[in-house]
């Protein structure tokens, strides 16, 4: 089992608070894992309060709504391959909550 160390820069508008939160995410050694797969695991198994864009159509890298900064570079979470160490941040300063931004 491979373990990913994920740091997410989060924001709560209700509390007007920003913070970083760390997660450890296990995945099998074989097979390709996208950043979206990692986010889905965190949301479903570790932290249901995490806000990010997730939609079945998003898996096709067509809509661009899952855009975020991944290790400092603007990328699509559904298309980008996960790395063992990642910093995930909102794509811009128009943050709605956590990784969700207005475009």
In words, what does this structure look like?
The chain is mainly beta. The chain has 1 helix and 7 strands, in the order ββαβββββ. The protein has one helix at residues 35-46; strands at residues 2-12, 17-27, 67-70, 73-76, 85-89, 95-97, 100-101. The strands form 2 sheets. The protein has a 5-stranded mixed β-sheet, with helices on one face. A two-stranded antiparallel sheet has the order 6-7. The radius of gyration is 13 Å and the shape is globular. The termini are far apart. The model has no long low-confidence stretch (mean pLDDT 90).
Ordered list of secondary-structure elements with their pairings:
Elements (H helix, E strand, L loop, with lengths): L1 E11 L4 E11 L7 H12 L20 E4 L2 E4 L8 E5 L5 E3 L2 E2 L2
| Biggest sheet strand line-up | 2-1-5-3-4
Structural class by secondary-structure content: mainly beta
Number of helices: 1
Largest sheet report: 5 strands, mixed
Spatial shape: globular
Output the helix-strand order. Answer: EEHEEEEE
Fraction of residues in H or I helices: 10-25%
Strand content: 35-45%
The pLDDT mean sits at 90
* Annotation, overall tally of beta strands: 7
Q: How many angstroms does the end-to-end distance come to? A: 37 Å
Rg, rounded, reads 13 Å
Question: Regions with pLDDT < 50 over 5+ consecutive residues?
Answer: none
């Amino acid at each position: 089992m491979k373990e990913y160390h994920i740091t997410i820069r989060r924001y709560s508008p209700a509390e007007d608070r920003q913070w970083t939160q760390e997660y450890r995410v296990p995945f099998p050694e074989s097979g390709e894992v996208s950043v979206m797969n990692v986010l889905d695991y965190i949301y479903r198994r570790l932290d249901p309060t995490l806000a990010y864009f997730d939609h079945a159509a998003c898996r096709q890298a067509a809509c661009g709504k899952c855009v975020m900064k991944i290790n400092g570079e603007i990328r699509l979470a559904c298309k980008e391959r996960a790395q063992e160490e990642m910093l995930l941040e909102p794509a811009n300063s128009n943050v709605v909550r956590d990784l969700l931004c207005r475009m």
